[in-house]
């Protein structure tokens, strides 16, 4: 901010009529620079808005009256900076820059009144209005009374004051929006709606208006001031350098000032990172300009070596006005004398004694301006300088934040933890239970809660939890479900178990008051698999628990409009945290996701950084793969558009988004077509995000929100997992690409350029097998020194044979063959990598295609890892990732495409081994007992020992039982598929597989044939001379094919965009994390510091005891 003010005031000083660095006849140049610095933000905003209008629908505002304020601001800004300020001294100009916020003080008082916040905080706003008006009155009186005959000075002063008032309309949008939101006037609300919907077009019109008005004022003032524009084309090089450097520093510092101010606002560090530096910046500018003037004046007096009293006026007459400007030498003394020149008309006789360049009367005026400016920020007026002078019109980024803050202040969010389980091991279940108990400690449920941000309730949906045991009439829990019960009973012995239409429910109250509800699903009573568990909790939590109370109030005669408004608010502040049965997370990770959804109302879902856990080469490969995916791909999606997949193992969804049209209803669709089985059932989390994106909701990624989940640890399980993910990812992306026009129109974050980026990514994924074959061919040609065409033929044979075998052999055999081939490919990749490095050292050059590619990718990955210091060790897994590229992008692609007709889950499919333990027997006895007590109504009462069990009784009401029966009947009834239907579905899936595989591999074959023809016939080959590290030609040449060059350039551009997106996302993540630390309650920090390990230690001790 100080550099910004110094550079701008320097331009103003150089434009002063009495300064000599820029001669009088060359003043139009400095005035032109002032005009450029004024309109530069408008030009950038215009370009940005026009770019958005090219691929977004931009509505024209119905009421053009809003442009009237922009006209006032444009006229005031141009007159103040171009006409008035160049005729005033440096102290006055510094004061003016800090006194332009005249009307915001008044608007703030009005906004507080309309928001019905009339209290003590209103007093500073009123005092601020009075103080700044008093300061301007004193300013006018002192200047005019100084010389009543000086009409010209009075004119400049009057224009300066008028310009300040007009410029202060620059903040009209901030307070107008707040006033409209809290107003009951239909006209204001319609105007606000019009302003919001036509935001982009208003930016275009207001930017053009500012540019045109500034140009008109500048063009008219120069001839009126008896200056000539022709001099602009004949400026000497010395003056040109001075002006160019000054305006360059001014524009760069202005942009940095805006970006740092934005960061301070987002970090909730406004007072110490924005307000105080902004206030001190003015004092620093004053010191920067005034201290050298005093020092030079004192040096001049000492140089005279006389006892006579030398005053400031004589110093100006002799040393300042009578100087000879040197065209060579140090420029700084001339700048100091030019600054002194602007102050020569003042009476400075008392300057040395009081340490100021103003007289006592000016001291009073400046003090009022500064104190008024400072008083703004001592109270809740943090959005006053959202649109600062000369920094552009970016109000909406801030206004949305402030409006959402005012609207949601004090509203309590409700978070439902929804974990789905199936065949998790004891250790995996222990991970998620520790995390839930950790969150219970972090946010205890109390009668008088200390924290008003959110409450939570944990739900676990256990799929296929029952099994039939010979000799027992009742179905009993299997070993996986029994592990969960065992863990809970070891921590909380008292359980509350009830029978339900879908199986059984277990209710547990944790040590700090929050509840865990475990839903044990019986696949004979309710549909199994993960998607149907999600449908189950979507309709139960959002359909039943959220809607029931409002429905009851409406039946009792409640006001419909008020109930609808309350319902919409609760839907907006209800969040579902989707979890897997083995997810390990910290409370801070949940808080960061909640904070994201609270801050931005159009965010429908947010996911965190997923870390795979486990051991072995398969896990090491996945660690680096997940890291690269999150570091580059997800950040690029977040920055340039939307995240396409929010993983179901750790994602927070907004209830309002899930309840939107065609989301929950569409998500509950039963698969009937072959494509449904692939898109709906194989990648349910991606499909849910596709539905949200189509409805206009934004999906985001938060890199600071960490979660850990177990990854497949053997080759077979990894291949089966990716066999599900690959085709479902492709199906969902194709679905989005097919709806590009609809998605880009409805979703403000999904632009057509972003969809083109996804199209390129899809083409790259489709051609990945052919690309890997070409890479292997190049490797063989490099190692064996054979013709590239022959190498290509050799490279095609192994994957072609594997492709044919996959259509004939069983999946286990296919995976075994892929594992053996992966070893050979890994050895080949390792040898080739070492050979390329050796060739670079031997030939002393890296300017070959393979060398450039390896070096560039290594630099990008290393720099990216350095941007994630906590994950830096993952770089060591990069070598394993590189040598496994053929396996991951060739063999795995072939396996997943050929077996896309297999719709089994592929992982955790081991059958549970039944072992009826004491805990399970106790559970089934409890269920039998409640069966008797329920009777036909399903209602019962139960009491427990007060010391061991909470007293609050949970009743399974008849109406909830009826809800489950209706829900199961409509959506979740177990599918009864006969043999004929199964055969028909199997045949349809095979036909779909054959069609897609033909197209998929035919495109790859075309790509390979084209590459082969180019290599055999040397058509369109580009030859480039090889140079060494000194850029001296070595005599060697390398050839580049146009197709390979085109693909490499496209890939390089994609990676570069991802890298830039990652860099921007890191900055945003840092800001968000700092803001989270700043807003975390103090008592929470103390409690977290004191007890952060207590729950973990207790559960870990019990875990160790159980294992032993």
Gist?
By secondary structure, this protein is an alpha/beta fold.
Describe the overall structure.
This protein has 1108 residues and is an alpha/beta fold. The protein folds into 3 domains: 1-322 and 337-391, no CATH class; 399-750, Spore Coat Polysaccharide Biosynthesis Protein SpsA, Chain A (Alpha-Beta Complex); 767-902 and 984-1040, no CATH class. It has 43 helices and 14 strands. It has a 10-stranded mixed sheet with strand order 5-6-7-2-1-8-11-10-12-9, sandwiched between helices. A two-stranded antiparallel ribbon has the order 3-4. A two-stranded antiparallel sheet has the order 13-14. β1, α18 (426-442) and β2 form a beta-alpha-beta unit. The longest helix has 39 residues, at 979-1017. The chain is globular. The two termini are 64 Å apart. It is an enzyme of class 2 (transferase). This is chitin synthase.
Give the terminus-to-terminus CA distance. 64 Å
Please summarize the sheet with the most strands: 10 strands, mixed
Number of strands: 14
Q: On the 0-100 scale, what is the average pLDDT? A: 78
Inertia-based shape? globular
Roughly how many Å is the radius of gyration? Answer: 36 Å
Strand arrangement within the widest β-sheet reads: 5-6-7-2-1-8-11-10-12-9
- Number of H- or I-type helical stretches: 43
Q: Helix/strand/pairing class, anyone?
A: alpha/beta
| Number of individual domains | 3
Strand content: 5-15%
Q: Helical proportion?
A: 55-70%
Low-pLDDT ranges:
349-409, 915-955, 1085-1108
Membrane topology: Multi-pass membrane protein
Organism: Cyprinodon variegatus (Sheepshead minnow)
GO cellular component, one term: plasma membrane
Pfam family, one: Chitin_synth_2
């Amino acid at each position: 901010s100080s550099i910004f003010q110094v550079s701008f005031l320097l331009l103003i000083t150089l434009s002063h009529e009495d300064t000599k660095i820029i001669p009088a006849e060359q003043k139009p140049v400095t005035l032109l620079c002032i005009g450029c610095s004024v309109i530069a933000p408008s030009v950038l905003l215009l370009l940005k808005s026009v770019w958005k209008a090219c691929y977004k629908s931009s509505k024209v505002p119905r009421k053009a009256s809003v442009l009237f304020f922009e006209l006032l601001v444009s006229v005031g800004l141009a007159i103040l900076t171009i006409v008035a300020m160049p005729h005033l001294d440096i102290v006055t100009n510094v004061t003016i820059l800090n006194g332009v916020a005249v009307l915001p003080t008044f608007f703030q008082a009005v906004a507080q009144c309309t928001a019905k916040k009339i209290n003590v905080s209103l007093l500073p706003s009123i005092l601020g209005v009075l103080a700044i008006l008093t300061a301007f009155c004193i300013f006018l009186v002192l200047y005019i009374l100084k010389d009543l005959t000086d009409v010209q000075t009075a004119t400049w002063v009057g224009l300066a004051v008028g310009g300040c008032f007009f410029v202060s309309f620059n903040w009209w949008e901030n307070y107008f929006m707040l006033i409209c939101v809290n107003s009951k006037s239909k006209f204001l609300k319609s105007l606000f709606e019009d302003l919001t919907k036509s935001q982009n077009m208003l930016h275009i019109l207001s930017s053009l208006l500012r540019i045109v008005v500034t140009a008109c004022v500048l063009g008219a003032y120069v001839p009126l001031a008896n200056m000539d524009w022709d001099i602009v084309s004949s400026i000497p090089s010395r003056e040109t350098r001075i002006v160019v450097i000054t305006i360059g520093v001014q524009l760069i510092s202005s942009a940095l000032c805006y970006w740092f101010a934005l960061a301070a606002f987002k970090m909730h560090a406004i007072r110490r990172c924005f307000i105080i530096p902004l206030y001190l910046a003015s004092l620093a500018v004053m010191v920067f300009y005034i201290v050298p003037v005093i020092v030079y004046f004192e040096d001049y007096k000492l140089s005279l070596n006389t006892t006579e009293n030398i005053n400031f006026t004589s110093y100006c007459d002799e040393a300042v006005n009578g100087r000879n400007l040197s065209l060579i030498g140090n420029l700084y003394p001339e700048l100091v004398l030019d600054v002194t020149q602007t102050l020569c008309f003042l009476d400075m006789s008392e300057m040395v004694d009081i340490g100021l360049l103003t007289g006592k009367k000016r001291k009073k005026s400046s003090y009022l301006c500064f104190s008024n400016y400072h008083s703004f920020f001592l109270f809740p007026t943090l959005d006053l300088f959202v649109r600062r002078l000369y920094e552009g019109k970016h109000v909406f980024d801030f206004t949305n934040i402030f409006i959402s803050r005012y609207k949601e202040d004090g509203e309590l969010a409700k978070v439902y933890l929804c974990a789905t389980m199936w065949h998790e091991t004891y250790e995996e279940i222990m991970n998620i239970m520790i995390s839930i108990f950790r969150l219970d400690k972090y946010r205890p449920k109390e009668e008088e809660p200390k924290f008003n941000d959110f409450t939570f309730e944990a739900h676990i949906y256990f799929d296929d939890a029952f099994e039939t045991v010979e000799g027992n009439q009742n179905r009993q829990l299997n070993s996986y479900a029994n592990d969960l019960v065992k863990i809970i009973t070891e921590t909380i012995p008292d359980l509350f178990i009830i029978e339900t239409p879908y199986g059984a429910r277990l209710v547990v109250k944790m040590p700090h008051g929050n509840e865990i509800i475990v839903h044990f699903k019986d696949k004979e009573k309710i549909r199994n698999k993960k998607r149907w568990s999600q449908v189950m909790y979507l309709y139960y939590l959002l359909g039943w628990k959220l809607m029931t109370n409002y429905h009851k109030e409406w039946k009792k005669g409640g006001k419909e409009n008020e109930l609808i408004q309350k319902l919409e608010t609760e839907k907006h502040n209800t969040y579902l945290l989707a979890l897997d049965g083995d997810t390990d997370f910290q409370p801070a990770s949940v808080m960061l996701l909640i904070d994201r959804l609270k801050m931005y109302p159009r965010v429908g879902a947010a996911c965190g950084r997923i870390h795979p856990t486990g051991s072995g080469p398969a896990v090491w490969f996945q660690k680096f793969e997940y890291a690269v995916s999150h570091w580059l791909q997800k950040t690029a999606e977040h920055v340039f558009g939307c995240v396409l997949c929010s993983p179901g193992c750790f994602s927070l969804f907004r209830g309002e988004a899930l309840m939107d049209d065609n989301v929950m209803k569409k998500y509950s669709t039963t698969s009937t077509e072959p494509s449904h089985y692939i898109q709906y059932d194989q990648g349910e989390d991606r499909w849910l995000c596709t539905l949200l994106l189509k409805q206009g909701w934004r999906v985001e990624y938060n890199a600071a929100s960490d979660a850990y989940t177990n990854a497949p640890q053997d080759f077979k399980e990894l291949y089966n997992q990716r066999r599900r993910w690959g085709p479902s990812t492709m199906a969902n992306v194709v679905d989005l690409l097919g709806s590009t026009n609809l998605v880009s129109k409805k979703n403000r974050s999904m632009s057509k350029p972003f969809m083109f980026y996804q199209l390129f990514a899809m083409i790259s994924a489709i051609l990945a097998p052919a690309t890997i074959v070409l890479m292997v061919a190049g490797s063989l040609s490099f190692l064996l020194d054979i013709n590239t065409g022959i190498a290509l033929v050799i490279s095609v044979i192994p994957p072609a044979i594997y492709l044919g075998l996959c259509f004939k052999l069983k999946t286990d055999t296919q995976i075994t063959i892929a594992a053996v081939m992966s070893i050979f490919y890994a050895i080949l990749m390792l040898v080739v990598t070492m050979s390329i490095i050796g060739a670079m050292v031997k030939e002393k050059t890296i300017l070959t295609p393979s060398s450039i590619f390896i070096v560039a990718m290594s630099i990008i990955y290393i720099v990216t890892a350095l941007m994630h210091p906590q994950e830096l060790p993952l770089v060591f897994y990069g070598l394993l990732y590189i040598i496994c590229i053929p396996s991951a992008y060739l063999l795995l692609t072939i396996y997943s495409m050929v077996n896309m007709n297999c719709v089994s889950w592929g992982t955790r499919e081991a059958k549970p081994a039944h072992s009826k333990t004491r805990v399970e027997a106790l559970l089934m006895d409890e269920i039998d007992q409640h069966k008797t007590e329920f009777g036909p109504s399903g209602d019962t009462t139960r009491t427990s020992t007060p010391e061991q069990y909470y007293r609050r009784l949970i009743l399974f009401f008849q109406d909830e039982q009826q809800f489950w029966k209706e829900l199961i009947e409509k959506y979740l009834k177990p599918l009864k598929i006969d043999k004929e239907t199964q055969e028909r579905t199997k045949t349809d899936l095979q036909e779909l597989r054959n069609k897609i595989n033909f197209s998929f591999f035919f495109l790859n074959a075309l790509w390979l044939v084209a590459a082969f023809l180019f290599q055999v016939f040397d058509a369109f080959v580009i030859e480039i001379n090889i140079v060494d590290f000194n850029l001296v030609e070595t005599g060697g040449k390398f050839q580049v094919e146009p197709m390979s060059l085109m693909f490499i350039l496209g890939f390089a551009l994609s990676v570069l965009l991802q890298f830039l997106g990652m860099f921007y996302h890191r900055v945003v993540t840092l800001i968000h994390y700092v803001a989270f630390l700043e807003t975390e309650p103090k008592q929470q920090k103390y409690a977290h510091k004191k007890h952060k390990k207590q729950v973990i230690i207790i559960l870990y001790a019990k875990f160790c005891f159980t294992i032993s």
